[in-house]
Amino acid sequence: GKDGYRHYMEKELHEHPVVIGQTLQRLIDPATRRVVLPDLPFDLASVPRAVITACGSAFYAGMIGRYWLESVARIPVDIDVASEMRYRDPPLTPGGMGLLISQSGETADTLAALRGMRAHRQHIVSVLNVEQSTIARESDVVLGTAAGPEISVASTKAFTAQLSVLACLAIAAGRRRGVVSPDQEQALVASLLDLPSRAGEVFDQADAIRRMAAVIAGARDVLYLGRGSSFPVALEGALKLKEVSYIHAEAYAAGEMKHGPISLIDQTVPIVATAPSGRLFEKTLSNLQEARARGGRLLVFTDTQGAERLRGIAEIVVAIPTVDEFTAPVLQTIPVQMLAYEVALLKGTDVDQPRNLAKSVTVE
Ligand code: M6R
């Protein structure tokens, strides 16, 4: 049941902290605080390349996984949505890693992409929530997410669980490839293990998120922005808003604004930005100042450190706990999903069963 929540989506949003913790518990040895993956039928030290594919939210999790595999493990990565990947027929060196991500394990396009990769002799690693599924049966290795059943058509907790697995995979690969030292591994693992309690604190921001929702609910179009690993968070936010509130939303890499979308900006098109403190913060900030100068209403998700710089620039600032840059996208996803839920409530849509959508897409 819904445990007293109004919708499964609300219940599942509140499960983020637990689900992240349970997923990490499967992959991190509490004694050594090192990542321990199941046995792989190939060596992460010598894998030439990873090809990531998935659909929808799982694809956005994969985009964050790409940032981590590239920056932490120094593995070359290609990524595409499964509906494109299955027909692209990219040249693949045998022995590469095909990385599939799916909550249900039944998505038709993801399964077809898997079979294509298998035909090109890739090792198939799947990040799945339903471990008794078709994709599971056709994979060499399944890395399970411990999200539990996800009923809401709009995916929420499965996403942060997928990120938890992908982060561990990147750390393990980095260690194996000699680019993550034992000290670095300890620091990265510590930042992951800190996530469940930090995630719990995100819900303290519910009132500020509702204020944002009131602005969004009156809009016809919304622009989501982010840079680096916050760009997929923006994509996830825009998808979730479209799904449950039926408001048109688009996500852009913040640096792409001046290449076109900035022409959309006026007071009627609110801008939702994800801008945690860190390497790219100042860059995003200057993009936001450009948008404001053109009359844009800025609603910004940041952390307590970034908030100081944003007050005075943004109309509404939601500051969640400051965490390591590595884990920031995991935490920043939660308020962005909460926002979509709050807007759906204001719009009175069928939150758990949005029109035209199915929980698992088993046809092409
Ligand atoms: O079961 P899967 O993870 O393979 O599903 C992929 C997408 O269909 C799914 O993430 C979809 O985009 C959700 N409705 C997003 O909220």
TrEMBL record:
<dbReference type="GO" id="GO:0097367">
    <property type="term" value="F:carbohydrate derivative binding"/>
</dbReference>
<dbReference type="GO" id="GO:0006002">
    <property type="term" value="P:fructose 6-phosphate metabolic process"/>
</dbReference>
<dbReference type="GO" id="GO:0006487">
    <property type="term" value="P:protein N-linked glycosylation"/>
</dbReference>
<comment type="subunit">
    <text>Homodimer.</text>
</comment>
<protein>
    <recommendedName>
        <fullName>Glutamine--fructose-6-phosphate aminotransferase [isomerizing]</fullName>
        <ecNumber>2.6.1.16</ecNumber>
    </recommendedName>
</protein>
<keyword id="KW-0808">Transferase</keyword>
<dbReference type="GO" id="GO:0005829">
    <property type="term" value="C:cytosol"/>
</dbReference>
<dbReference type="GO" id="GO:0004360">
    <property type="term" value="F:glutamine-fructose-6-phosphate transaminase (isomerizing) activity"/>
</dbReference>
<keyword id="KW-0677">Repeat</keyword>
<comment type="function">
    <text>Catalyzes the first step in hexosamine metabolism, converting fructose-6P into glucosamine-6P using glutamine as a nitrogen source.</text>
</comment>
<feature type="domain" description="SIS">
    <location>
        <begin position="40"/>
        <end position="179"/>
    </location>
</feature>
<keyword id="KW-0032">Aminotransferase</keyword>
<keyword id="KW-0315">Glutamine amidotransferase</keyword>
<dbReference type="GO" id="GO:0005975">
    <property type="term" value="P:carbohydrate metabolic process"/>
</dbReference>
<feature type="domain" description="SIS">
    <location>
        <begin position="212"/>
        <end position="354"/>
    </location>
</feature>
<dbReference type="GO" id="GO:0046349">
    <property type="term" value="P:amino sugar biosynthetic process"/>
</dbReference>
<dbReference type="GO" id="GO:0006047">
    <property type="term" value="P:UDP-N-acetylglucosamine metabolic process"/>
</dbReference>
<feature type="active site" description="For Fru-6P isomerization activity">
    <location>
        <position position="359"/>
    </location>
</feature>
<keyword id="KW-0963">Cytoplasm</keyword>
